[in-house]
C-alpha cells in the first residue's frame, strides 16, 4: 500500500515567493494545505491569485482567514500612509520600510501553527527571505528558530513529542535564484501577484515589491509575465 | 512635570483572572490598553463584560479584534463539541481538555505584541496560570519565556533595543490567591464572566471554569457574586 503523503501547511500570499515555496513543498511530496489572510491589505487582488493558484496546482485545502490588522494600524500596507515608489535598490535593502506590518509574520505563523495542530501537520512552509528584505526583523533565520522553539513549548502536539518544523527554503536565495527554482518547478509566474499598490489587476512597477521582482527576472535572464501599468499606456 | 505613565497592553477576556491582572497593572501605574477577541467562542457574553469593566476601571483604550479561530476548528469552545460538565477537580487538573483551543494564547499574544509595537508599549500583561490549568501547554512559564525571546527577535522595537516584557503575575497563584489579590485591589467580580457554556447571562456552574472559580471563592472564604443558573430555579 502506498504511504499517505505527509501534510504540510503553506503560507500562501499569491506572490512570487510563496508560490515558489508551494511548488517546492509539493515537489517534496507534501500534501499542501494553503493558508492566506485578508487583513485589510491594499493589494487584496493577491487573494484571488492565491485561490486560482491553489486550484491549478491541486492543493489539499485552501483557507482564507480574516484578520483585523488594520484595526491595529501602523503600516502603509493597511492604512492611508503612501506606499513608497521609485526607491533605489540600495534604499530598499536597508532599514525597516513603512510597508513593515508590525507583528505580521508572527500573527501569520501563529495561525498556521494552530491550523497545523488541528490538521495533524508537522511541517509549516513559508516564503520569508533574509536577502532582499534584510530590514524586516521577522524575516531572519534567528527569528524563525525562536518561533519554532516557542511553538513546540506552547502547543499540545509540540509538548507531547510531535514537534513542528518550520521550512523557509528561500531564506538565503536571491530573487533571481528563487525565480530560477520556480521556473524549474513549473510555476506560472504570470498567475502570481507581488505589487503593494496595484491599479486594478495591474502591478504598478514602482513599489519596492515590483522593483525587486523586476530586478530578479532581469538577473535570471527571463521576462516577467506579470502585467504592469505602463504596458497599457 | 509629572512623568507620563508607561503604556501597557493587557489581554482582557472579561473573566476573573484577566480582570485581576488589569487591576494589578493599573495599581502598578501603567496606562492600560486592553485587548479582547471575538473568536467564535460560545461565551461571547464575556466581551460585553470586558467592555463594561474597561469603562468602569478607566483604561486608556479597549480594542476588540475579530479572529477566525472557528474556521481553524479543533476546540469545544468554538465548535459543536460539547463542553464537559461536572468533572472532578482531579480530572480538570490533569491532561489537556477539549476546551483547549489550538494556538489560542500564541495568536492572542501575537496580536498583543503587534498592538504594543504600534502604541509604543513595552509591557504586555496576561492572566495565564500554571496551577489550575496545568494541562494547557500555552500557560507554562517556559512557553512565555520562549514567546518573549521570539518577540524580541521578530519585531522592530525588540530588534532595535526596546525589548518587550511579558508579565504573567498570576502564573504561580492558586485561584483563591488570585481572588484575594483582586479583592484587595477592589475588583468587582460580579462584573466578570468565567463560564464556558453560559445560559444567557447566567453561568452554568458545572463546566471546568465554573468549578475552578467556585472552588477558589470557597477556599478564599468569600461568596462569588456572579449569577449562576441554579439560583434561578
Mean pLDDT of chain A: 88
Second-tier CATH architecture of chain A: 3-Layer(aba) Sandwich
Shape of chain A: globular
For this structure, the CATH topology of chain A is Rossmann fold
Given as residue ranges, the uncertain stretches of chain A (5+ residues, pLDDT < 50) are none
What is the CATH superfamily label of chain A? HUPs
Radius of gyration of chain A: 17 Å
The tally of domains of chain A stands at 1
SSE series of chain A? EHEHEHHHEHHEHHH
Portion of residues in beta strands of chain A equals: 5-15%
Structural class of chain A: alpha/beta
Q: Determine the fraction of residues in helical runs of chain A and give it as a percent range.
A: 40-55%
Q: Helix count of chain A?
A: 10
Largest sheet of chain A: 5 strands, parallel
Largest interface: A-B, 43 and 43 residues
Q: Got a strand count of chain A?
A: 5
Show the helix and strand layout.
2 copies of one chain form a homodimer.
Chain A: E1 7-11, H1 16-27, E2 31-38, H2 45-57, E3 61-66, H3 69-72, H4 89-92, H5 104-119, E4 123-125, H6 141-154, H7 156-159, E5 165-167, H8 175-184, H9 208-220, H10 229-232
Parallel strand pairs in A: 1-2, 1-4, 2-3, 4-5
Structure description:
The structure is a homodimer of 233-residue chains. Chain A has 233 residues and is an alpha/beta fold. The first copy, chain A, has a single domain, classed as Rossmann fold (3-Layer(aba) Sandwich). Chain A is built from ten helices and five strands. Chain A has a five-stranded parallel β-sheet with strand order 3-2-1-4-5, with helices on both faces. In chain A, strand 2, helix 2 and strand 3 (61-66) form a beta-alpha-beta unit. In chain A, helix 1 (16-27) crosses helix 8 and helix 8 packs across helix 9. The termini of chain A are far apart. The relative contact order of chain A is 0.17. At the A-B interface, strand 3, helix 3, helix 5, helix 6 and helix 7 of A face strand 3, helix 3, helix 5, helix 6 and helix 7 of B.
